[in-house]
Input
Amino acid sequence: MPPLLEVRNLRTEFSTGAGVVRAVDGISYTVDPGETVAVVGESGSGKSVGALSILRLIPSPPGRIGGGEVLFAGRDLMKLTDAEMREVRGGEIGMVFQEPMTSLNPVLSIGRQITETIEQHRGADRTAAQKRAVELLGLVGIADAPRRLKQYPHQLSGGMRQRVMIAIALACDPKLIIADEPTTALDVTIQAQILELMQRLTHQLGVALIVITHNLGIVARYAHRVNVMYAGRIVESGPAGAIYHTPHHPYTMALLKSVPRLDRPRQARLDPIDGQPPDLTRLDRGCAFRPRCRFAIDACAAAVPDLDPVGEPGQFAACFRSRELSSLEAGRAA
Amino acid sequence: MSVAAQVPTAVENNPAAPLVEVRGLRMHFPITEGIIARHKIGEVKAVDGVSLTIRRGETLGLVGESGCGKTTMGRCILRLETPTAGSILYDGIDIASLDRRSLVALRRRIQVIFQDPYSSLNPRQKVGAILSEPMKVHGIEPDPKRRAQRVRELLSVCGLNPSFADRYPHEMSGGQRQRVGIARALAVDPEFIVCDEAVSALDVSIQAQIINLLEDLREKFNLTYLFIAHDLSVVRHLCQRVAVMYLGHVVELADCDEVFDNPLHPYTRALLAAVPVPDPAVEADRAFQPLPGEVPSPINPPSGCVFHPRCPIAVAECPRAPPELRELRPGHWVACSQIS
Output
């Protein structure tokens, strides 16, 4: 079966006062139908810009998609007209953003915001759209739908607003949902409700999901495959189990070690990643993680390593030393 | 009588006595209506009867979800709010009723580190000026040369190059700014620091650096911390004791290991279960039922035990009487009538 989405060498750059920033610098990955793929990384790693680029939602200027292809269900989204792209957004690809208060329209009732999507993409009439909206609210676990549909975003709690966002994303039976930090603004018990709901619905409806997050626990629980991003590139990708249990990139290894874990005995000290996040205006031709890497060698300054297969089937890492890392790490710990 | 005499130092007091003792603290914010004649139509019960102690040299964690009152607790202990009722004994002095003059002296001993390293530093001041200001306010190092020397020392203690004194906040990364925020708190040589979500805004890799720094500083300067946070794994790593808050009440208070290895209150249990562990093998085998519903409004909190509408083990009597915080095991306090 061909992948549902194939991103090929996607590049997005921003012109800033300090020069051109390559926020996304040649990323390639695939998403299979019904699969949940996580994109993890820290602020500025390009994880959100990468997702917004798929939807062509990059503000221009200052942003610009510099190249690459995004094949979705057989079409290259980069070649569509603006009108065709509007059909894709909210139609075949649903979106859930971090802050539901700012991504919902404050002056429209939530009922109108849901029916608008259905009328726009499906050409449904008011009554049919209304009926579908009631059905959708039930699906995302909002009781008393007729009353809720008349309410405005400010009358709803953060968790409820995010449920509405999910209802809108699902309104036109999309094949793919892109969720950018969907629960970062929510409390931990509400986060659990929303994530369990998204997992249940994507599974039940066979929708593929790209979830962008910095939370390594969420990735471990909900993702089938993982892309780890650093300084605009994917540095490691593969099945979730392989990424967590046998990471082959120094950044992934260090990231997993730096978080305190509730399921392990308390450590005396945390093992942080030294140094500061990369300044994207000052990248050179070497590996961007090199200044913070414990295993950097001279070769790392000369060129950026390619994302090559290593470790388990389907696992890739962009590191010149990925094959010797596990023995190097064992030596360091001893 | 000098200001220093009104606020005795820790050395003069019994070192075994708690540094901070909060008794029956209530902080109710009024809600008003009307444009010309404003009248009160209700109140937000942000903190509603909290008692706890903070021991010298410990880190007490204060956890809970937004709106549980943890930040308001911190602000009351800093006396940035004047509590509605109750007392806050700091080293034996009731700071809930201190006048302005004595408060200034007190604030040399109590400092705060805020969450957001972007909005808590003045963008128009250089780091050197930011760190000098608290020293000027409290008359520490009046000589400019020695003050500049102390700024350099503070920066290097916090892991920054002393040359950062000449930089503006916007020239630094989030982690570096948070180090400046910590250095500013240390500038007046305090004994107690309220860390209000001090690492929450930082990226994972930087968060670990700052957590290690906070631990080093606690040892080096014999500091006591009140660590307010919502990230349970960070709290477990850093704290000796933990208080769990829900809707203005402390529902569980115990040694850190007790709270995490043997949680007794149903809310604490639900909170811990909601945190996914960064390990797909562990998560694949872990089934859990998310806590239903949402945190009710603190304007009109549920009767009796405030947790009863969401509680998996609530019985008919729970909405009737608020449960008392009882010591069920040595040092392990729980506010639930159904647990024994």
